[in-house]
Design goal:
- Helix content is 35%, strand content 21%.
- It has 14 helices and 17 strands.
- The chain has helices spanning 94-105, 110-126, 146-157, 186-200, 223-236, 248-258, 262-268, 286-295, 303-308, 316-322, 342-352, 364-378, 412-418, 445-464, and strands at residues 13-22, 30-39, 42-48, 58-63, 67-71, 73-74, 129-136, 160-167, 209-215, 240-244, 276-280, 298-301, 326-328, 396-400, 424-429, 432-436, 439-440.
- Strands 1, 2, 3, 4, 5, 14, 15, 16 and 17 form a nine-stranded mixed β-sheet that branches. The chain has a four-stranded parallel β-sheet with strand order 6-7-8-9. Strands 10-11-12-13 form a four-stranded parallel β-sheet.
- Strand 1 and strand 2 (30-39) form a beta hairpin.
- The radius of gyration is 21 Å and the shape is globular.
């Protein structure tokens, strides 16, 4: 029963007890056995031992024995549409991968995008994501209401969501990578982005849907679109997102085309600031990291995708030491076929230990912070989500850690980061259950799987016949 579903009209409460708790607050407060009281859509109280006596309107009590409660995971970079092109171009670097797949992606339509969004959201939600994000930038002519399809899928799933309304206006004829028919005009992209913000963005506390302005990348977007996109976002009061410094090829491209490295180019177009976050940021020198730290520019770290595309190892420990906000991202499922964010906790830790800092790169609690509080920072919602604290929104996950995969690991946080992917017994978003016992509550995941398979096959047929 949902916490808000109290027929008496008074604020209903859910009480979770007897679980280990990692709050991920500023002090990394943890309880070996504690409670969380949810009232309506917010966390009312949290602490050690049993919940307070005499609570009124308790509609549900959850025995969390054998579980760890954490904030819900926050995904900061994704491309949902790629769900229906998984398993292709598996031995390519980024640029070759894009060239191989753009002709197929340029033929997506509304039904395909809806099916892909459902699949992407379902996998993340089952794995503890309570706030999802999608950077959608492919809008072929006549393809339908793609933004509406994505937002509708998130609403149906019950997760909190940010749509980064992307765009491309630099095609092959202009020296970019996308086919000519896959891009928008400068004017069309800006107008459609502004319309999406006006139609869907909710700036209120507890908003379930927000929109960011998100031209795709330096090699698929004109300088004018970057500049005017930044001006548009700030005029509308929304955040900005793009890809940055992902590969050495991108750095070479920027130097050849603009006479600047990626970070200096972004600075010249107004794309550094506390309202900006960028995906990947793998190839950053000391001066780049300093610029991000000084301006408060955030980073979406996507370790699995970076490895899949042989992009390199992002300098996450150095970014964190400098004060750069860093969250985690799944990235598109054509470069991270699992589509799960909780595996990125482990991969972020392990891959960064292959870098210069070795075993001192990241620890389990830093990895968990990247996937929760760090993600909330990057999305500009740290006052609302990302940690378990009284007054924050009730987005939380109860991970089962007493099964065969985790029961012999004494420390609960180590268990979910270093161990196998922990099952989700309960996931709340805005105080409402979204997952119970590993099962999505609001959608039929078998139907989603069938539809995604059918749409993937339809897209492949269309692309083959082109």
């Amino acid at each position: 029963m949902a916490a808000s579903a109290n027929p008496g009209g008074a604020t209903a409460r859910i009480v979770i007890e007897n679980c280990a708790i990692a709050t991920v607050d500023a002090d990394d407060t943890e309880y070996a056995s504690g409670y969380v009281v949810v009232a309506g859509n917010t966390i009312e109280s949290i602490g050690a031992g049993k919940a307070p006596e005499g609570l009124e309107n308790v509609v549900r009590r959850v025995d969390g024995t054998g579980h760890l409660a954490t904030p819900g995971l926050v995904n900061t970079h994704h491309h949902f549409y790629q769900w229906i092109t998984r398993g292709l171009a598996t031995d390519h670097n980024l640029f070759n991968w894009l060239v191989a797949l753009y002709p197929t992606w340029a033929r997506i339509d509304e039904d395909m995008v809806r099916a892909a969004a459902q699949g992407s959201l379902g996998m993340m939600a089952r794995g503890g994501v309570t706030t999802a994000m999608d950077h959608h930038y492919v809008y072929p002519k006549g393809s339908g209401d793609l933004s509406g399809a994505i937002i509708g899928a998130a609403r149906e799933m019950g997760v909190r969501f940010t749509l980064a309304r992307g765009s491309m206006d630099r095609s092959e004829k202009d020296g970019g990578l996308p086919p000519d028919f896959a891009v928008e005009t400068l004017e069309g992209a800006l107008a459609a982005t502004e319309e999406t913000v006006h139609k869907h963005h909710d700036a209120s506390f507890g908003a379930m849907t927000q929109v960011a302005v998100a031209p795709c990348s330096p090699f698929s977007v004109s300088t004018e679109l970057m500049k005017q996109g930044a001006e548009l976002a700030r005029r509308l009061g929304v955040r900005l997102h793009t890809h940055g410094s992902e590969t050495v090829e991108e750095e070479k491209f920027c130097h050849e085309l603009f006479g600047l490295g990626p970070t200096d180019y972004f600075a010249s177009t107004g794309w550094l600031g506390e309202d900006v976050w960028m995906a990947h940021c793998v190839h950053m020198n000391d001066s780049d990291i300093e610029a991000f730290a000084r301006t408060g520019t955030g980073v979406a770290h996507c370790p699995s995708s970076n490895a899949r595309l042989a992009a390199g190892i992002a300098r996450v420990p150095d970014m964190l030491a400098a004060g750069v906000p860093v969250g985690l991202g799944v990235d598109g499922t054509a470069s991270n076929e699992s589509g799960e964010l909780h595996t990125e906790l482990r991969n972020a830790l392990l891959i960064n230990r292959l870098g210069a800092h070795k075993e001192a790169a990241l620890n389990a609690r830093q990895a968990l912070r990247l996937g929760t509080y760090g993600g909330a920072q990057v999305l500009g919602r740290v006052s609302q989500i990302g940690s378990l604290e009284a007054g924050k929104l009730a987005d939380l996950v109860l991970w089962k850690i007493d099964g065969i995969g985790h029961s012999s690991i004494a420390d609960p946080v180590t268990a979910i980061v270093f161990g196998a992917a922990a099952p989700v017994t309960l996931s709340l978003v805005n105080g409402e259950p979204v997952v119970e016992d590993g099962r999505l509550l609001h959608v039929d995941e078998y139907a989603i799987a069938r539809t995604a398979r059918d749409e993937a096959q339809r897209l492949a047929r269309i692309a083959a016949g082109s």
